[in-house]
Amino acid sequence: MSKTTNACRPATRWRRLAFKCAIFVLALGVAFPLLAGQGPAHEAAAASSFNFNWAPAPAAPLAWTPGQVNDWDLVENIDGPTDNNGSMEAGHGADCSAPPATHHVVSLADSAFICKSHMMTAVYGGGDAYATYGAIYFAPAQLADWSQGPATVSWKVSTQRLSTRDWWQVNLTPFAQNM
Questions:
Q1: Which domain holds residue 31?
Q2: Which pTM does this prediction carry?
Q3: What is the per-residue pLDDT across 31-42, written as a single tens digit (0 to 9) for each?
Q4: Are residues 101 and 137 in the same domain?
């Protein structure tokens, strides 16, 4: 390995540690008021229900970009100044056939895609990737309204892990802290 590559690794590790610490502190800031049942009352006006269908059902993986209105927020990120996320084989075949069939993905633009009427994500920070870390975050552009009592948030997700660095998480944020 070159000296440049070795010199960059500690800085990358510190950035990742700082990022993880910031997320932990943010999670604590959200969790404590919720667990204590405290915090100011805020009124929210949310739709009575929100149901999203990942249409269409394309014949090949369809790169997904959120619409401008009433859609999802999507953030794809790697720790480098490039769109290349590292070559990998993503779930579903080139004809959207079911796993274990795969298709080749190289860029962040291809890392969120639709097959079989559902959204798939694939990002890789190893191998030929410029960087060593990648993540995809997405959230509905909707609010859950608890101001009049209980609310339900539900979804379907695959829990298949293809590496030790694969995970998913859900963050419910109080209205006053909504960004």
A1: 1-37
A2: 0.64
A3: 444 444 444 444
A4: yes
Residues 33 and 103 in one domain: no
User: Amino acid identity, residue 45?
Assistant: A
Tell me, yes or no, whether 170 lies in a domain: no
Q: Of the candidates 128, 81, 82, 80, which has an alpha carbon nearest to the alpha carbon of residue 104?
A: 128
Q: Tokens for 174, please give them.
A: 């109080």
Please check whether residues 96 and 23 belong to one and the same domain. Answer: no
In the chain, the number of structural domains is 2
- In order of 8, 88, 93, 142, the CA distances from 127 in angstroms are 17, 9, 21, 37
Rounded CA separation 111/55 (Å): 17
Residue 26: name the closest of 37, 18, 36 by CA.
Answer: 18
From residue 94, how far is each of 56, 62, 91, 137, 161 by CA, in Å? 16, 10, 9, 24, 21
**What is the rounded distance in angstroms from the CA atom of residue 91 to the CA atom of residue 104?**
9
Six-digit token string for 97 = 């056939």
